[in-house]
Amino acid sequence: xxxxxxxxxxxxxxxxxxxxxxxxxxxxxxxxxxxxxxxxxxxxxxxxxxxxxxxxxxxxxxxxxxxxxxxxxxxxxxxxxxxxxxxxxxxxxxxxxxxxxxxxxxxxxxxxxxxxxxxxxxxxxxxxxxxxxxxxxxxxxxxxxxxxxxxxxxxxxxxxxxxxxxxxxxxxxxxxxxxxxxxxxxxxxxxxxxxxxxxxxxxxxxxxxxxxxxxxxxxxxxxxxxxxxxxxxxxxxxxxxxxxxxxxxxxxxxxxxxxxxxxxxxxxxxxxxxxxxxxxxxxxxxxxxxxxxxxxxxxxxxxxxxxxxxxxxxxxxxxxxxxxxxxxxxxxxxxxxxxxxxxxxxxxxxxxxxxxxxxxxxxxxxxxxxxxxxxxxxxxxxxxxxxxxxxxxxxxxxxxxxxxxxxxxxxxxxxxxxxxxxxxxxxxxxxxxxxxxxxxxxxxxxxxxxxxxxxxxxxxxxxxxxxxxxxxxxxxxxxxxxxxxxxxxxxxxxxxxxxxxxxx
Length: 504
Fold this sequence. Notes:
Elements: H1 3-8, E1 10-12, H2 17-35, H3 38-62, E2 70-79, E3 82-88, H4 90-112, H5 118-137, H6 141-161, H7 168-200, H8 209-212, H9 219-234, H10 245-252, H11 257-264, H12 267-279, H13 281-307, H14 312-331, H15 336-367, H16 383-397, H17 404-419, H18 421-447, H19 452-456, H20 463-481, H21 484-498
Helix pairs in contact: 2-3, 2-5, 3-4, 3-5, 4-5, 4-11, 4-15, 4-21, 5-6, 6-7, 6-11, 7-9, 7-10, 9-12, 9-13, 10-14, 11-15, 13-14, 13-18, 14-15, 14-17, 14-18, 15-16, 15-17, 15-20, 15-21, 16-18, 16-20, 17-18
């Protein structure tokens, strides 16, 4: 079966599981806002987040992992050419599982932080979860765009409503400027794609992936469409040099809730794999060396800036940019192992950055600062939080025994085959630099000397905080020592996608 046939052939769902995945959290969010009572809101919010995780696991269990065919498909006619079309493969399910897990952790973390009003907070998180589930299940580009607009609007509200800095208006303004530009580029690229389909198929406009994939994009516009879609997604990935919103948002927004949703879930990477690579393989192949060159520069640019940061939140922001560049190098190496490793590293990165952000938030809750020179000695008072921060940092840099190790190995192996030693060595050195600044941050925050009087004022971790830290540690180490199920989950879809790109 050819890659095109694989995309166009899909097994239909007997029950609308994917619709339920999107509608249940949205309906619960609306109900919570209608009730507006704290205790029922907490019960409904936690229960719904847990139920969404169980439903995601059920979808994972019934998925045929040996097939690259889109499964559990749902198609409803709305207002042509805008229609509802959803389906999943192993890549979608992996991101769905990550979304459900991180949203549950965000709910628990927010309640631990006592973000008020709880009903408002829980409704926002569940509504965001609904839009994220739409993003990871839709097969329609205009639906993907609409869900992105809804998600980013809600996340922006989270950034502003529970920000920790007086400069939150500046952070929100910069966030919407960048994201709005990215969405505008996506919209133009999508419209040109639909126009190209209409031009080559007798005037039929469509935004459906399977139908767009059935016609060849004109070489005259393929590069233009590629750059519009790629840059539109690169803004939120975030990839150098489109990352200018991130340091401000990390510094002046809330500490962990919105950043975890924005950075832990690599929607930009998913959008490239789901839509850009299948529809525009010739343009992807043509421009991949240039994308990799920018990514290589981004690794060192962000790593050097991370090393000179005095604020832990800004340091983590530049760590994200540096490691996103490594992801892009793997993705645009275009081989089976490279694509498989990139998807796996995206998920690992999501878990690890969530761990770093959550633990940073718990540190801020006690000290009311994330300036490194004002921290230190925290390991004596909150050792569990320190261990979770340390293991999450090691996972990002791919140390053996962490889930990033196998993924990074696959990426570097594929990169040296396609691009040679220079880019691969650069990516490896960038990883070494990342290990340096993350370990330095750990040493400054948790191990550096601090006066006994100040250390004694630090409150020990609560049971719920230790539960969050322990859960992240167990998941990271569990995936690290047993990555085979997750690599197998994306094996067939990535084998089908890589077949579009000649090797060598």
